[in-house]
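Chains adopt folds. We examine one example:
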Amino acid sequence: MIDFEKINDELMEISIEKKDTFELKASEQIIKSTVNLLPFIEASENYQVSCKATAEICLSMSLQARKMRQALDKSRSEIIKPHFDFQKAVNKLSKDFENKLVEIEKSLSGKVVFWLENPECFDIEKINVEDGCLSKKTVVDFEIMSLDDVPREFLMIDTKKIELAIKNKIKKIDGVRFFNRSEITLRIKN
């Protein structure tokens, strides 16, 4: 029989200095401690229940297989649990920092965008800093005012066609209002 508790205890005794080889030693220990299950498999496949006594033996063998499986699963869980706990802790810490950094980025870039919308900043198109740049460009956008007045070729509200018309310098389409809006892009230098 495999003594999974003994294997587990031996694995847990591996010193912290050897933590880099922990996984390798754990898998080696398990491989060395494996049992040839072939006789158990053959016995279970060929076993015939013919009376109460053989039924009890069959039940006992079944429950022993379950105990072995549960012991194996318990050992496996105890071996990998520290890794999962560590991974969860790192992920949580990282997520907390990420969320806070996203908040800071949005807050600070929002302040710059708000400042750029002041009348005195209309002539500023780009701000370059050591870490990257912010550029401001005017984008022509549209809003459908009256579907009845929109020409037939634009009726399907094909935004691609309207954008193509804008690129081709068409400034008026009946039923469509054109307007300018500012769009900010941030780039990070690597």
